[in-house]
């Protein structure tokens, strides 16, 4: 499953308007077996911007592609300078009410699983177990030569030591952890190699134009097959890797519900589309189900 660099699409004009009633979502969750598929919109309330909303980063920023990263040392220097700065924001981000509600649904046995398109690790931080990170995680770094995977915090320390005077002010931070810097600000930023083999280091995330690992793809498809329904949270479904899961569920006759403030590329497959901010919507759903969503409802089984 290759991530296509689709940056825009035209919403269907003949679909009925979305609702603000969360009752259908609560009803589906109460039946159990729900597979959650989350996107960038779930993390905006944690201070991480999304791509495609009115203030989304794609209006000013084109994400790094795999081809550019692997084919150009200058592109890698630009990426790592910007990502090194952006990582500080990601490292400080904390789960919001939406992440905590999803974790609560899981603790109470309502979910068949959670798949996220996000690379911020906030589902795990909120206490969700067994999350499939479809596009990887920014908190890990992989060597393209030897395959070694190391914690991002180790690389952050090495980059700080190699660039002690690097303290630019970014114009903005993007959902992929890439900060907006000028070429002048990137300047002579020094990139460090793999400590084991001297190879090129890359964040353990799937760039645009890069294939999602086949084993991860099959795991996601398996989760869709096992689920009773699919709940999309905060994803525009513009990227094909997420839209395919929605199509698979719909073709199998499984109900698809979408909670997102804006229209999505998968709206035609949804039986319910709730147009509300994610934190408020999921907190309301948790309340209807009688579930505390603050992470303080006792130890996990």
Describe this structure in words.
By secondary structure, the protein is of the alpha/beta class. 34% of the residues lie in helices and 14% in strands. The protein has ten helices and nine strands. The strands form two sheets. The chain has a six-stranded parallel sheet, sandwiched between helices. Strands 5-4-6 form a three-stranded antiparallel sheet. Helix 9 links the parallel strand 7 (229-233) and strand 8. Helix 4 (97-107) packs parallel to helix 10 and helix 8 (214-226) packs parallel to helix 9. The longest helix has 20 residues, at 73-92. Mean pLDDT is 88; it is low at 52-60 and 296-301.
Descriptors:
301 residues, 9 strands, elongated, three-stranded antiparallel beta sheet, alpha/beta, disordered C terminus
Q: How much β-strand is present in the residues?
A: 5-15%
DSSP summary: helix tally: 10
Instruction: Say how many strands there are.
Output: 9
Q: Indicate the radius of gyration in whole angstroms.
A: 19 Å
Please estimate the helix content. 25-40%
What is this entry, summarized?
The protein has 301 residues and is an alpha/beta fold. 34% of the residues lie in helices and 14% in strands.
Record the SSE blueprint.
Elements: H1 23-31, E1 34-38, H2 66-71, H3 73-92, H4 97-107, E2 111-116, H5 122-126, E3 132-133, E4 136-143, E5 149-151, H6 152-162, H7 183-186, E6 201-205, H8 214-226, E7 229-233, H9 240-251, E8 256-259, E9 272-274, H10 278-288
Helix pairs in contact: 4-10, 8-9
């Amino acid at each position: 499953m290759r991530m296509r660099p689709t940056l825009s699409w035209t919403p269907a004009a003949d679909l009925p308007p979305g609702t603000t009633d969360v009752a259908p979502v609560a009803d589906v969750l109460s039946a159990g077996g729900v597979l959650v598929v989350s996107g960038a919109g779930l993390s905006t309330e944690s201070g991480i911007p999304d791509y495609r909303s009115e203030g989304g980063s794609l209006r000013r920023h084109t994400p790094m592609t795999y081809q550019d990263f692997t084919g150009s040392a200058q592109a890698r220097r630009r990426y790592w300078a910007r990502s090194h700065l952006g990582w500080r924001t990601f490292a400080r981000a904390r789960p919001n009410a939406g992440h905590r509600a999803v974790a609560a649904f899981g603790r109470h046995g309502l979910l068949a699983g959670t798949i996220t398109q996000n690379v911020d690790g906030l589902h795990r931080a909120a206490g969700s177990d067994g999350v499939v990170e479809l596009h990887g995680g920014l908190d890990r770094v992989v060597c393209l030569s030897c395959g070694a995977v190391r914690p991002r915090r180790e690389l952050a320390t090495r980059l700080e030591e190699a660039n002690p005077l690097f303290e630019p002010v970014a114009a903005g931070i993007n959902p992929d952890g890439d900060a907006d810097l000028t070429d002048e600000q990137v300047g002579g930023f020094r990139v460090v190699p793999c400590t084991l083999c001297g190879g090129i280091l890359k964040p353990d995330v799937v760039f645009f134009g890069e294939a999602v690992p086949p084993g991860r793809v099959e795991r996601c498809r398996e989760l869709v097959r096992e689920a009773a329904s699919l709940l999309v949270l905060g994803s525009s479904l513009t990227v094909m890797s997420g839209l395919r899961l929605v199509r698979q569920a719909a073709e199998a006759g499984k109900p698809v519900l979408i909670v997102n403030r804006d229209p999505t590329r998968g709206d035609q497959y949804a039986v319910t589309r709730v147009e509300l901010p994610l934190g408020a919507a999921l907190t309301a759903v948790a309340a209807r189900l009688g579930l505390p969503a603050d992470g303080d409802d006792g130890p996990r089984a």
